Amino acid sequence: MNLNLVTERLLLRRWNEKDAEDLFRYASDSDVGPITGWPVHQNIQESREVYMSIEKLPKYQLKSWQLPIGAAA
Predict the structure, then answer these.
(1) In sequence order, what are the residues at sequence separation of 6 or more whose Cβ sits closer than 8 angstroms to the Cβ of residue 65?
(2) What global pTM score does this model have?
(3) I need a labelling partner for 45 at 20 to 30 A (CA). Which of 26, 51, 55, 65 fits?
(4) CB under 8 Å to 28, separation ≥6 — which residues?
């Protein structure tokens, strides 16, 4: 079952495989990764492996950006 929570500005949905590229964009930034508790990702494959562990978690996304801004555990 695929349930989404939608507000005027926010979309909460499950991660999907194409989100790995967005995750890599954040996780490869040395100013972002370490403060969130993960090492800086060196390649997209690292982000795909992380995606596999978080794919069931809800993803926060600003509707206007069309990019993830976080995940809920």
Answers:
(1) none
(2) 0.70
(3) 65
(4) 40, 41, 42, 47
Residue 33 burial by Cβ neighbours in a 10 Å radius (0-12, 13-18, 19+) = middle
For residue 5, the model assigns a pLDDT of: 86
Token pair 């939608």 is found at 6
Q: The tokens 């978080």 sit on which residue?
A: 54
Across 49-71, b (16+ Cβ under 10 Å) vs e yields ebbeebeeebbebeeeeeebeeb
Rounded Cα–Cα distance for residues 20 and 23 (Å):
5
| Amino acid type, 35 | I
With tokens 């494959």, the residue in question is 45
